[in-house]
Amino acid sequence: MSEGDTDVTVIIATQDRAESLPMLLGHLELQSYPHARFDILLVHTGSDPETPRTLERYAEGGPVRVRRLAAAGEPLNRARNRAIAQATGRWLLFLDDDLLASEPLVAEHVATQRACGGAAAVVGSIEPHPQIDPQTFTRTYALAASRVYIPDQPLRFLDWRLHNVSLPRAAVLEAGGFDEDLPSTDLDGVELGWRLERSGLRGIFRREACAYMWHAVRMEEERARFYAEGYALSYVLQKTASDLLHERYAKYIIPWRGRLRRMAAPLWGLAYMLSAGGVARRRALCRHTFAEALGRGYRDAAAGRDPRGA
Predict the structure, then answer these.
(1) Rounded CA gap, 185 and 143, in Å?
(2) What is the DSSP string of 106-118?
(3) Cβ-contact 230, 144 below 8 angstroms
(4) C-beta separation of 113 from 168 below 8 A
(5) Which residues have CB under 8 Å from 230's CB, separation 6+?
(6) Which of 40, 196, 231, 49 is nearest to 123 (CA)?
(7) What percent of the chain has pLDDT over 70?
(8) What is the C-alpha separation between 156 and 149, in angstroms, rounded?
(9) What's 309's DSSP letter?
(10) pTM of this prediction exceeds 0.85
């Protein structure tokens, strides 16, 4: 299969999730879009032998072409840039490895891209899986992201994150791909989106291009992730000098707010441990904790300190 033979290359970065890959790939095999018109490129940054074995089982005789890009120990953004160079699709669909694709996911991305002249950042929705236990603690998406997306209305670069988004490959290549100096966080897509928007690309939200949350996470993992995002934020703000981006994150990085969050953090942690039954209450407590971690990461980076983790 050569470049131009496919409409979409689905790019999935994963470390060591061999146990959940069958679910992820199985849902992509059930897409309503013609299987011959899209392929899957798995960027494997881990070193476990089970991931390539699982991939081999799916690649043999499967309805969708699946490839693996070995990138053990390689910075993720460098590996992503290699994946972009190897992609065969007109559009790149970035999908997180802990999300499950709804049946019309690829078809909705393609239909929206075509409606936009083939040159857009199409952001799909992320919702809890219909069969997930409501008590399951799943990933907290983007504290500073816009929570009210209006279908088929313009969406600024701030929300072009890589969880479930399609981009024209030609535009990404012309922009130079991902910034390999940026520590890999949720801001990778935002920084690239800033450059793509400046070149004329426009973003749009498509609710029907849905991916489902189903993977449980630990609070400690989420806290570390938001610390890393805050650490990267300092770099992105300096590079973009974007007032819009600064405004979006202002309440997380204002010094006096940070001091209040630091003082209250132990109380939030205790309240989380003592809370019982209320998922919404625990999530609210977690968001306070994650906001403190994000602000602390930003302050460490702005002060020139090495990352200290959450």
Answers:
(1) 13
(2) HHHHHHHHHHTTT
(3) no
(4) yes
(5) 252, 253, 293, 294, 295, 296, 297, 298, 299, 300, 301
(6) 196
(7) 87
(8) 11
(9) -
(10) yes
Residue ranges with strand state E in 89-244 = 89-95, 99-101, 120-128, 154-155, 164-168, 202-213
Could you give the CA distance from residue 209 to residue 123 in angstroms, rounded to a whole number? 8
44: left (phi over 0), alpha (psi -120 to 50) or beta: beta
Predicted confidence band at 280 (pLDDT cuts at 50, 70, 90)?
Answer: low
Return the percent helix, strand and coil in the chain, to nearest 5: 45, 20, 35
Q: Which of 58-72, 143-157, 199-213, 253-267 has the highest mean pLDDT?
A: 199-213
Structure-derived torsion over alpha carbons of residues 219, 221, 223, 226, reported in degrees to the nearest 10: -140
Q: Which residue in the block uniquely carries the two structure tokens 């930003």? A: 298
List, by residue range, all CATH 3.90.550.10 domains of the chain.
6-213
**Are the C-beta atoms of 194 and 108 separated by less than 8 Å?**
no
How many Cβ atoms sit within 10 Å of the Cβ of residue 3? Answer: 12
The helix (run of H) or strand (run of E) holding residue 219 is helix 219-240
Q: What is the DSSP letter of 60?
A: S
- Give the whole-number percent of the chain exceeding pLDDT 90: 65
How far is residue 222 from each of residues 85, 264, 310, measured CA to CA in Å? 31, 18, 9
Pick from 131-145, 159-173, 294-308: least confident: 131-145
What is the assigned CATH class of domain 6-213?
alpha beta
